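Progress report, Aim 2. The chain analyzed during this reporting quarter is listed below.
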Amino acid sequence: MNDVMMQLSEAVSYIKSKTNATPKVGIVLGSGLGNLSQVIEVETEIEYGKIPHFPVSTVKGHGGKLFFGKLNGTHVLCMSGRFHFYEGYSAQQVIFPVRVMKMLGIETLLLSNAAGSVNPNYKVGDLMILNDHISFFTTNPLIGKNVEELGTRFPDMSEPYSKALIAKALEIGKANNIHLHEGVYTAVTGPTFETHAEYRLIKTIGSDVVGMSTVQECIAAVHCGMKVFAVSVVTDIGIREDDNVITHEEVLEAAKEAEPKLTLLFSELAKVIA
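Predicted structure tokens for the chain:
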């Protein structure tokens, strides 16, 4: 057994010693979006720091626990708080929890994030479903020796985000009067917010929003055969005529205000996935 599989096995064994739950739906909550975990009927919670080889969240607005429980009647595994490349973790550490989820039986992964918009039709508080992404500006987490037990050396990424789940989400949005954009997410390393020139570049290459997470997790999930659905909460506008400074506190506040829409969307989506 290689080192990666050994570490994953040790983490999974510890988690299974704490719960008998076997959810098929996994959820990762982004910056300022942790309150969704409060809607879950929690049966078991496990601190990241107690799980072997698991990273620990270091960013304000991110929790640090795994929650097993029911969301709208569906058994789920929820990560309240994720990990980022900019925290100093390797790309492989960032995706470690996704691989743990796979080994725990997760088949569908729901991702959320806070993002800056470069699309002039978006406004703060809007939700955008990811239908594609651009990952050239961040490290591919599959670089290095392939872990054959998890997936193929050259995974296809022509449909990184499930078209079927996107269609279901759009139906949910329409039924609940939630306006949903569809667009492209560009991943950058962070932790700096982008310069004006970088925002213009990101817009020029065909992106609608930009953020510092999600894509590495998506790549890992697709690599190991999961279906992926992701939503960005627009928390700031990147391309603007003034010189307003973007702060992390403002991002968290905007995410908090938009969170009820995301909670409803994920709750309803979890129900139809089951």
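The mean pLDDT is 91. Strands lie at 25-29, 41-47, 65-71, 74-80, 108-117, 127-134, 180-187, 209-211, 227-237. These observations will guide the mutagenesis work planned for the next reporting period.
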